[in-house]
Design a protein that fits this description.
Elements (H helix, E strand, L loop, with lengths): L2 H6 L2 H23 L8 H13 L2 H33 L1 H14 L8 H8 L3 H25 L3 H9 L4 H43 L4 H10 L3 H29 L9
Length: about 260
């Protein structure tokens, strides 16, 4: 293909073009509406974003949220791994996990926030509790589905070449199930991030502290719509970074490298 065709067909260029189109639509609609209180322009939002980056407010709030998210996400993954190991190792474990997943996976994590406040009080432990709930069941369900979906012929191939124990799990089961595991990690991350922001909105009301959720809530109280959009833009940018950089790098070094997906 020619240079132009390679550029046009490049996935990163296509994604960037989509973002540019959305930004142009945003800017034109805001200019047509001409009401910054209702819908600020993209340039106003970016100006507010950079102002709060420079004065450190947005960075501090974002780092507070990310620290809490990291703790909750890690705890959720650890518990999901323990549940899945038990489920894969025994039939009763599979039935227990399936039952618990059917019970708790449809339950919104934010609905548990009142209980978290009663049990743990205001602060990080309550936030971690609701994040763990949002991560645990999605990751465990996808991981279990991945292990149960490993073809029997692949299992027999591993046994025929003498693989047993940890080598059998590490060289056969995990690579074969990893597309489902990775999907669970992505879903768990998305659930955890939006649950945290929503919970911080409530915590902001209760304790006048918190991360990016409280940043948004403060701006809403002050009728500073540009700052609200700045907070939402931060949430979106972090989501894009995690999806397009972190998870994309994991995919490139695992399932793409193994030829399991394109």
């Amino acid at each position: 293909m020619s240079f132009v065709e390679r550029v046009v067909n490049n996935e990163s260029v296509q994604r960037l073009a989509i973002l540019v189109v959305l930004v142009v639509i945003w800017e034109l609609y805001a200019l047509w509406l001409n009401n910054s209180l209702l819908f600020p322009t993209f340039t106003e939002t970016v100006a507010t974003f950079w102002h709060d980056i420079r004065n450190g407010v947005l960075i501090d709030r974002t780092m507070t949220s990310l620290r809490t998210l990291a703790i909750g996400y890690a705890c959720g993954l650890l518990l999901a791994g323990l549940f899945t190991t038990f489920a894969v190792a025994s039939g009763i474990g599979t039935r227990i996990l399936s039952t618990l997943t059917a019970m708790f996976n449809p339950l919104p994590a934010i609905a548990l926030l009142p209980l978290a406040l009663i049990w743990f009080g205001l602060g990080t432990p309550s936030l971690v509790f609701v994040i763990v709930h949002s991560v645990l069941w999605a990751v465990a369900l996808n991981t279990l589905s991945g292990f149960r979906g490993v073809p029997e012929t692949l299992r027999m191939s591993g046994r025929n070449v003498g693989l047993t124990g940890a080598r059998y799990v590490g060289l056969i089961l995990i690579p074969a199930a990893f597309p489902s595991i990775l999907a669970g990690l992505k879903i768990g991350w998305a659930f955890a991030w939006r649950t945290l922001v929503a919970a911080e909105l409530v915590f902001g009301v209760s304790s006048r502290s918190g991360g990016i959720g409280w940043y948004i809530f403060e701006a809403r109280n002050d009728l500073d719509t540009a700052t609200v959009f700045s907070g939402l833009l931060t949430v979106i940018l972090i989501g894009l970074f995690v999806e397009s950089v972190i998870f994309r790098a994991i995919e490139a070094r695992t399932v793409n490298l193994w030829g399991m997906q394109r």
